[in-house]
Every structure is written in C-alpha cells, then in structure tokens.
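Incident log, structure service

09:12 report received: a user says their structure output differs between two submissions of the same chain.
09:20 pulled the input from the user's history:
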Amino acid sequence: MSPLSSIPLTLYVHMPWCVRKCPYCDFNSHQLKSARPDGSYISALLRDFERELPRIGTRRIDSVFFGGGTPSLFLPEEFARFLEAVRRRADLSDDAEITMEANPGTIERGRFAEYAHAGVNRVSLGAQTFNARLLERLGRIHSAEETERAVEELRNAHIENFNLDLMYALPEQTLEEALSDVRKACALGPAHVSYYQLTLEPGTVFHSRPPPLPDEDKAWRMQTEGQALLAQSDFAQYEVSAYARTGARSRHNLNYWSFGDYVGVGAGAHGKVSMSVPQRVLRTIKPKQPKEYQEHAQRDMASVIGECNAVEVHDLPFEFMLNALRLNEGFSDECFEQRTGLPMSTVLPRLHEVQERGLLEPRSGGWRPTDLGRRFLNDLQAAFLA
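09:34 re-ran on a clean worker, output below:
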C-alpha cells in the first residue's frame, strides 16, 4: 500500500454561469440572468471546501483550477477572497499553478492585471476559432479581435503562461479554415494550445439538431496537419489534445491524467480523493443546480455536500488507464502502483495483450501508447475494463 503523500493533490473550483450557453457545450453551465454572479456563491464554495478538509488532512494542494462556465464573470476580489481563505485553511503550495478559464468576450480592458494581483498566474482562453462565420455557428459571444485584445491584456498583466482552446471539424469548416486557425493561434504566442475535435455530446443542442460536419477523412487531415503546424511552432504534444512549449505543460491537467487526487468544489464539481489505496479511493460529485448547491452549503454544516462513492478495487486499473493512456509518454510502473495501490502483476496480462495488438509498447520503467494506440485510444482503454 502506497502512502498518500506520494499522490499529488489539486483543487478544482466550478463556477457554472455563462452569458449564453453554447449549442455544443455539455459542461454544467447555466445562462446568467443578472449582470454578474452573486458573490454569495464564493461563500458557498468556502463552506464546501471546509467540509472537504477532513478528507485531505495536512496534504499539500499543488494547483487550483477555476473552471466553468465562465469564471471571468466573477470579480477579481472574489478570487482573492477565495484563495486567501484556502491558504488560511490548507497547505496551498507557494508556487501553485492557479488557472482561470476565461471567455474573451467577458474580459474588460485591463482586468487581467487585477486577476493576476488576486493570485491567478495562468489563464485558459476559449478562442475556439478565429473565423467570424464559425464563431457565430458555435454560438460564441466574442470575436477574433476580442481574443487578440485579451492576449494583449494578458501580456500587459505579465501573464505569459496562457492557453488557447481551439476546436476543429466545425460545421462546414474547410481544411484551410482549420489550418488558418492554428496559424493565427501560434502567431499570438501562447505557452499552451488545446486542439481538439468538436464532438456532438448527448444533451446538447448540436446533438439533437446535428449541424453538417466535415467527414472523418477531412477531420483526420485537420488533426494531423494542424498537429504538424503546432510542432513547427515548438508546441510538443504530450496528451491527446494538449500541446505545450517547453516548461508549459498544464500541471493541473497532468495530475488528472496521471490519476492524482483532486478536491472538487462548486455546483456539479467532481472530485477524486484517496483515503487509502486500494480500499478507499473516493469519487465525489456536488449538486448540479447552483441554487440547490448553495442551499446544501447553507444548511447541515457538519455534513459533506453531494454524493460520494468508493471506486471498486477491481475497477481501479481501468480508471487509471482511462486517464494515463491519454498521455503520449504513458505511465511508469511506479506511478500505477502508487496511485492504485495494486501490484503491476494485476495488469501485466492485459498489457501484453494490447502490446501484441500493436497498441502499446514498453518504455523504460513503464508503458506508452503507440501511434496506432493513440489513434484507436478508445479500443486501448477498453481493454482494461474489469
């Protein structure tokens, strides 16, 4: 059994409001009905965090990620209040990566400097595309020019560590339009790019009324030729949809993909916390509706908010592989044993089976997906189902 101190711990904070719900979005987000979210939500987040403290004890928190929704709808002083309170209650690393997701259309000129002063040191901008026609099809409220202005303000605020979210295989998108987006993103000089294919997720407007999308061959060309352009601009792919310049990999997301622990607070937030391994790896989820979540936070101060279920020991190998096999470099034997509490002998037969199929290959002290395995990742991950 591995000590919990060997498993990194991070904090995810969900801020569920958007100015407008995008037709492709399946995240827990809700259209804002007022000028900005009520600051009482920050109080609810802190009460939620306090109730999670017994689960994490004295463990250090290595990163904080404010996701949404659109966190940048909240005022900088509300971020400062939250982070200061977390530091008083827990061991937040001095060099913690603190990321805020932002929509370029919700940032006022000069505001990023205030978020930086509040403690934010990394920003993820939801650019998605630089094409005006496609931004409209995606229901985005910002323009390409606003993305460019947001990047300028990031630099003025001395936040050089920023990510641009970029999607491809958009409705009726041509190959040249997709590659033009990549070129424009690279020209803005981000430290990190998330480049991923639009998928039609259940429960979304696009899923119920599918728009015309590029076929599989065109989408594959958009992916591979876009990847080549990113490589030419010194963005190295390290995960299915993540590309970073040297030293700029997302520490928070790397923790997810390496099966680390994370506390989740906020409406609909998910968490994973190991109380002991392999016996008590907990999955948590908070009430999805903001009103219900805040009501739960207001009452029953002694009880933890939301649901909590232990992962069955026989499911741990699949849970681990579902994340770790997204990484280009795969995983080490030591990481598997530390994070699951199981010996490598638990999965060796299946590792050898997928190796024979050409989906996985050994590396020094561990395993990594082959090019074929990355292309057929779902098949590779499914091989580890209990």
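09:41 both user submissions now match this output. Likely a transient worker issue. Closing.
09:42 reviewer note: The CA atoms of residues 138 and 384 lie 35 Å apart. The longest strand covers residues 91-102.
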